[in-house]
TrEMBL record:
Gene Ontology CC terms: ESCRT II complex
Family: Belongs to the SNF8 family.
Superkingdom as given in the UniProt entry: Eukaryota
Subunit (UniProt): Component of the endosomal sorting complex required for transport II (ESCRT-II).
UniProt KW keywords: Protein transport, Transport
Organism: Anisodus acutangulus
InterPro entries: ESCRT-2_cplx_Snf8 (IPR016689), Snf8/Vps36 (IPR040608), WH-like_DNA-bd_sf (IPR036388), WH_DNA-bd_sf (IPR036390)
Protein name: Vacuolar protein sorting-associated protein
Length: 251
């Protein structure tokens, strides 16, 4: 028969558990303190790096993207505020604020032609045209970061992926799977027909027509009935070349 431990044995076991617990807490605290110390060192080195290369960060889009990656790894968000060290040193907050305002203006100006859905590459081209006088090159990464800050406006700004292309949506229109498939199909030539949608996607005539008419009502499509074959073309400016935007040179 197994003998039960006496009171002394239980007390010793409890004391041992307490010692192990305290030891574990001390080890965890040491690790936490060490990590905090390392992060503080990294942040200090990052600030030194930013001071040394601030011109490159401001003027070189690729270098700026790499800098943001470095910041993310040590938990620093240079875009979090227009005030403070990073804004004073690099003017990053002001840069993305200005970029965000210009993105809004371009989206509003092109909305009558694309229904509030514009290709990210087209948006960057229009921004480049608008910012020629500034002489600060911008990249898609810059546009994406600026758009991410526009979400706080609650005005529907977001980036969606259709096929291999990124589109910027500036209206709260919800696109379903059928709409996305049509937009992806239209990327080949800028337009589709009901027959083409039926054939390529293996849909019924009613399904194809319903989806296309919804996109037309939302302002994302334009119709062209002037062809000899009598087939209506549904054109999608959001997946067409930037040159199709009326007045693009005046933005």
């Amino acid at each position: 028969m197994r003998r039960r431990p006496g009171i002394g044995g239980l007390q010793n076991a409890a004391a041992a558990r307490d010692q192990y617990r305290l030891l574990g807490e001390n080890v965890a605290k040491l690790r936490t303190d060490l990590m905090k110390e390392q992060l503080a060192t990294f942040r200090s080195q990052l600030e030194d790096f930013a001071r040394k290369h601030k011109n490159d960060i401001r003027k070189n889009p690729a270098f700026r993207a790499q800098f943001h990656e470095m910041c993310a790894k040590v938990g620093v968000d240079p875009l979090a505020s227009n005030k403070g060290f990073w804004a004073e040193l690099l003017g990053i907050g002001d840069f993305y604020y200005e970029l965000g305002v210009q993105i809004i203006e371009i989206c509003l100006a092109t909305r009558p032609h694309n229904g509030g859905l514009i290709g990210l590459d087209d948006l960057c081209k229009l921004l480049g045209q608008r910012r020629k006088a500034v002489r600060e090159a911008i990249s898609e990464d810059d546009c994406l970061r600026a758009i991410s800050k526009l979400k706080v406006l609650g005005s529907g700004f977001e980036v969606i992926t259709v096929g291999k292309r990124k589109l910027v949506r500036s209206v709260p229109t919800e696109l379903n799977k059928d709409h996305n498939e049509i937009l992806e199909l239209a990327q080949a030539q800028g337009f589709v027909t009901v027959d083409e949608v039926q054939r390529r996607l293996n849909w019924s005539s009613g399904r194809a027509t319903d989806a296309l008419e919804t996109l037309l009502e939302e302002g994302l499509a334009m119709i062209d009935d002037g062809h000899r074959d009598g087939k209506r073309r549904y054109w999608f400016p959001c997946v067409s070349s930037v040159s199709t935007y009326v007045g693009a040179d005046t933005l």
